[in-house]
Amino acid sequence: MCYLLNYKSKVTVNAKRDYEYLYILKSGLNNLWKDYNELKIKFPEINLGYKGERIKQNLKIYARKIQRIPGNSSIILDILSKKDYTVNEIAKIIHMTRQGVRYHIHNLEKQNKIKKIGIKGGKNYIYSLISR
């Protein structure tokens, strides 16, 4: 069915073969999002809930112009110069993956430019500039 809708996808089988996983690949996500928004116009009661928010956030990440470059560390430092944030909050602000933000946070900690100042929720560390 995904093929007919032009959603690039992948199916993986559970190790116990009880069920399969269907993954819509990044290249098919734009088509899925476009179709979803058209359906929402015709049927306003449909809602993907938090999954819709995650898709929207992922599309922003993929569209981001600054990717995989050292300039991301300076963007993170600039954000932390205004307010203290967690990795998840920074990722949402700059449309970057949490893993990418964690990578830069780890390097900035090693350079003694930022520090952990608390915890929000479970293991969501709050980061701050060392000299602010």
Overview of this protein structure:
The structure is a single chain. The protein is an alpha+beta fold and 132 residues long. It folds into 2 domains: 9-63, no CATH class; 71-129, Orthogonal Bundle (Arc Repressor Mutant, subunit A), CATH 1.10.10. 48% of the residues lie in helices and 19% in strands. It is built from 5 helices and 5 strands. The chain has a 3-stranded antiparallel beta sheet. The longest helix is centred in the N-terminal third of the chain and has 17 residues, at 26-42. The mean pLDDT is 88.
Write the layout of secondary structure elements.
Elements: E1 9-13, E2 20-24, H1 26-42, H2 50-63, H3 71-82, E3 85-86, H4 87-94, H5 98-110, E4 114-120, E5 124-129
Antiparallel strand pairs: 1-2, 3-5, 4-5
Helix pairs in contact: 1-2, 3-5, 4-5
Helix count, per DSSP? 5
In one word, what is the shape?
elongated
Largest pleated sheet: 3 strands, antiparallel
β-strand amount: 15-25%
Count of individual domains:
2
Quaternary form: single chain
What is the radius of gyration?
19 Å
Count all strands and give the number: 5
CATH names the topology of the largest domain as Arc Repressor Mutant, subunit A
For CATH, the homologous superfamily of the largest domain is named as Winged helix-like DNA-binding domain superfamily/Winged helix DNA-binding domain
Helix content estimate: 40-55%
Distance between the termini: 54 Å
Strand order of the largest sheet: 3-5-4
CATH architecture assignment of the largest domain: Orthogonal Bundle
The secondary-structure element order is EEHHHEHHEE
